[in-house]
Known about the structure:
Helices cover 43% and strands 13% of the residues.
Amino acid sequence: MSVVSVEKSxxxxxxxxxxxxxxxxxxxxxxxxxxxxxxxxxxxxxxxRVVQTDVLMQLFVQGLRADIIVICLLLVVPVLLxxxxxxxxxxxxxxxxxxxxxxxxxxxxxxxxxxxxAFILQYDIRPNRLFVEYLKYPKExxxxxxxxxxxxxxxxxxxxxxxSLLLRRIFKLGQCNAKQWSAFKTIGxxxxxxxxxxxxxxxxxxxxxxxxxxxxxxxxxxxxxxxLSSAYSVFYAIYNLKHEAHSSQMYGGLPTEHMLKxxxxxxxxxxxxxxxxxxxxxxxQQAVIKREKPLNLVIVLQESLGATFVQxxxxxxxxxxxxxxxxxGIWFENLYATGTRSxxxxxxxxxxxxxxxxxxxxxxxxxxxxFTTLASILKSAGYQTQFVYGGEAHFDNMRSFFTGNGVEQxxxxxxxxxxxxxxxWGVSDEDLFTTAHQQLKALHQQEKPFISLIFxxxxxxxxxxxxxxxxLYEEPKNTVNNAVKYADWAMGQFFEKAKQSDYWQDTLFLVxxxxxxxxxxxxxxxxxxxxxxxxILGADTQPxxxxxxxxxxxxxxxxLSMMGLSSCHTMTGRDFTLDKTSPGRALLQFENYFALMQxxxxxxxxxxxxxxxxxxxxxxxxxxxxxxxxxxxxxxADKNKALALVQLPSYLxxxxxxxxxxxxx
Length: 665
């Protein structure tokens, strides 16, 4: 072999090895290739959605930029420790560490990208904070994956193992020795590496570093998520967890006094006196309906029962029992959920608390005690308070939130005897309602008023329920439409028993969804997927069709007034027994977007706040289920009105001004 050949071979070997940067450089190159190929596959899969946005080339260019950010983040620790590679006796240890770190980083990228298609199918977006939150509940999640997504799960595990072994072989390519660089050479190149790493993570020369909002290049949230990698999306969600109390600041900020003034400037709040500076939303709500003895309250919170499944609301004909019941009470024709999670629905229905970009207050630390809820209000009025759930009440932190905020008795799966069917999420809805009926009879016999929250779960993936209960809507059995129909049947059985019971005439019932199932769409906010059914019946309730735009946070004040219970509380929702004529409003939180929807003469008008501090106006036509964004800028007054409403709950939580002990004096 000639001297030239030997020198050329030696040069290529050194170039391939690159000293202490051997595995770091390979990780960067392999990571970029993996993420780009994954993005290409996802774009081809969702091509119909992507092509409608007309940002195909921009998606890949910005995607490359986002990938550089996440890869630089993954390499921060080994790059910072590179000087150790030049320390005598630590060189070999350094190479072993960098090899394991970099291989683990690539395996993580592979796993997250392989998990992405199934997550998009379920939530119409890349893995995000919801992915992180579910990691707290391995039993429920693994059970759901095994029974509802078995093939994708097995394929994902198998593919992750195979690709990991392939990456390991690529890492071992080349004959590299562990020869140490001199300290001068190491430090010199290290300084350059730190500069490049900083530039890659920041990704901009603006005063703020790049974040996911920078890559929101379309009005389709799912397409925007394709710009990112799943690892980046999840990392950012974890990072944001420490900013929960100030989460609404992503939209901008208003001075506190101005924010409070705008938040309370609604027609239905004009008759209240807000006189306590320590608790600015505390007020005395005088019940419109006078009763010698206030009614009991039972809330049936239906899992994932959106308008999608209610024929009279434009959905499928899979809730015949609910359609019968709606003729016997006050039916909310135009009711909207505040979010897309069960805890968000609990927060709105039970606590009357508006949504923020942060986690629901059901899960936040400062709201685990002394937080205003219907249970805390009614407990102070001498009510017995109860929560009945077919699964394990610790899920989503419900047990802690309820027991710390007025609920005295928790009845969950462990207390339900001899269930006829048990699935991944607990016992069936018929077992739940059988137990609830027994509990309500026992509570009524004690001759004390009571509140009971009944939370269903059969309408939850993997959609398991007993055989031979309903005529299936479709084949195969375990589909969402069949599960909804079964849940509706079980609820119908419960109300047949309730009407014949002693407690019926003394009890007000609310049937409402926590949110819709699979909330997604090709618009910035899929407004139609926030539309939910709501029904108040029981006792002396007269049938009524309520067309006014309403939010879940309006239900608690309305229920208190119908029960005949006057009280001091901090909830700012609307009492529909007091005001039925003013145009309504709804508050919608979808991912990092917040919308204020107000009732216009012929359609709903929206102001949507974006995480980059900008806003956009929209018109929603409910009959066509169509949201059209306007090219006209949002007026400062309209933006501030929306900003005040999303800033208020963040302020109340952060400053702990939503206490159940709040005084109205």
